[in-house]
Every structure is written in structure tokens, then in C-alpha cells.
Amino acid sequence: MSATLFIFIVMFVSCISSGAAQNSSGFDHFWLVQSWPPVYCQQINCKRKASDFVLHGLWPVNSTGHSLKNSSKATPNFYAMIRNHSFAIEMDEYWPSLGSTEGHDPLKHIGFWEHEWEQHGSGQPYEGLYYVQAAIRLRKSVNLLRILGNQGIFPDGRNYWKTAYVDAIKAIYGYPILKCYNGHLLKELIICVDGQARNFISCSKKEQGSSNCHKNIINFPPPK
Ligand SMILES: *[C@@H]1O[C@H](CO)[C@@H](O)[C@H](O)[C@H]1NC(C)=O
Ligand SMILES: *[C@@H]1O[C@H](CO)[C@@H](O)[C@H](O)[C@H]1NC(C)=O
Ligand SMILES: *[C@@H]1O[C@H](CO)[C@@H](O)[C@H](O)[C@H]1NC(C)=O
Ligand SMILES: CC(=O)N[C@H]1CO[C@H](CO)[C@@H](O)[C@@H]1O
């Protein structure tokens, strides 16, 4: 083999394996962000009632946990996606816009999905449908109420140690990030997912530090 060809092959292979294209934006991994509606709805006026965690979004972040966006990336065609009726039902169940409709009309969620894409989803390397399917698949695979309930943590309006929430989730998915309203009401639980949107990983110490749950005890309000 000629030296030039050899060098060419080495460069070509290392270019593929370093994932250079995926990393040009600093993209490193995802945050699977799930909201707890009883607290989320203290901040916005909700029409839809929900008694389980709902997807807020699947946010690409860089290695220090900063959300990435890319305004030149085209917004996916959500209208086309929900023409698949079974997918539309899943989108409505797991990723509803709580403020938009009390019923189950997927068309009413599109503005929210587009907003999530533009603000938090666009800075990731995958094509729109793949990304949205990954978000739904990940949300379906994570049953936070069951995982917390197995450790005796229930949405019953009582206070639980912050470490109890963290330990319950850490044992299955790795360290999460907790977000609160008023410093002590459980609003969101964030789990980290690798850059392929496949495996759960621990959120870094720095990412955990972005929690705004300042109290050691966190209240878990019941569904309305
Ligand atoms: C932003 O998206 C455009 C269009 O898909 C792409 O060409 C560009 O490389 C992206 N920029 C970054 C930093 O990923
Ligand atoms: C992550 O993004 C933030 C905000 O844009 C930036 O300040 C930081 O340097 C980035 N970190 C890395 C490791 O790219
Ligand atoms: C429609 O959505 C369902 C549920 O997500 C999925 O299993 C199926 O593959 C989708 N069909 C097409 C044609 O994409
Ligand atoms: C999606 C992806 O390929 N992310 C990689 C970006 O670069 C860092 C550091 O080199 C890797 O750890 C990520 O897996």
C-alpha cells in the first residue's frame, strides 16, 4: 500500500471514530427532562390534568450541562409525524402541552413541541423524527413514580429528604438533577442520557450542582 493511501485511510477512519461532526457544536449528551405537573402547573395555567410525570423535553447539552441550540437547523414536521395515529397517541400521552388543551388533540401540542425544538432540541446531531422517537422511547422506559414509590417516596404532599430522591433514581439510572419551585417543591427530575440517546449515564457533579432545590427536604405534592 502506498504511504499516501495509508495516511488517507488513517485520517478517514479517525475522522469517523472521533464523531467530529456530532461534536462541532460541543454536543456531548442529553438531558431527559420530566416535569411533575402539580408543581409545574403552579407556574403556568394548566388546562390538562396529569397524574404522572410528563416529558418537558430531550435537551442536548455540552459536557458542562449547557443546553445547545442551532437556529439554522430546520424544525421537524410534527404535522407529518402525528399522521401516524399510534405515534400521535403516544406523543399526546407522554409529551403533552399542559397549558394548551384539556382534551387529547395532538394538534394543540405542536406549538409547544416546536418551541422545545427551537429552544432546546435543535443543537443535536440527529434528524428530527429519530430525535422525537428517541425522546418518546426514553420517556416510556422511565417510570419515575414507580422507582420513587419502590423506595417509599409517594406524591402524597409529604416532605422527603433530597438524598432519598437522588438515591432512588441513582440506583437505576445514575445521578439525576433535581429542579424545584420555591426551592422545596419538586418540579422536575432530569436524567442524563449518552450522546446516542441510548444508555442512561450519571449527570456530572457540575450538572447536579445546577439544581435549584436549596432545602434538604423536598415536598412531593399530590396530583390535583
Ligand atoms: C447547524 O445546523 C446546520 C444545518 O443543519 C448545520 O449545517 C451546521 O453544521 C449546524 N451547526 C452546528 C454548530 O452544529
Ligand atoms: C458549554 O457551554 C457554555 C455556555 O455556552 C460554555 O460557557 C462552556 O464553555 C461550554 N463548555 C464546554 C466544555 O464546551
Ligand atoms: C407509528 O408509530 C408507532 C408507535 O410509535 C411505531 O411503532 C410505528 O413504527 C410507526 N409507523 C411508522 C410507519 O412509522
Ligand atoms: C455525541 C458524541 O459523539 N459525543 C462525544 C463528544 O466528545 C466527547 C469527548 O471527546 C465524548 O465523550 C462524547 O461521547
TrEMBL record:
What the entry lists under Gene3D superfamilies is as follows:
Ribonuclease T2-like
Which terms in the GO cellular component ontology are assigned? extracellular region
Q: Give the keywords, sorted.
A: Endonuclease, Hydrolase, Lyase, Nuclease, Signal
Query: How far does the signal peptide extend, from start to end residue?
Result: 1-21
Q: Which Pfam families match?
A: Ribonuclease_T2 (PF00445)
Q: Which residues cross the membrane?
A: none
The GO terms describing molecular function are: hydrolase activity; ribonuclease T2 activity; RNA binding
Q: Which domain of life is it from?
A: Eukaryota
GO biological process per UniProt: RNA catabolic process
Q: Which InterPro entries match?
A: RNase_T2-like, RNase_T2-like_sf, RNase_T2_His_AS_1
Q: Which family does it belong to?
A: Belongs to the RNase T2 family.
Q: What is this protein called?
A: S4-ribonuclease
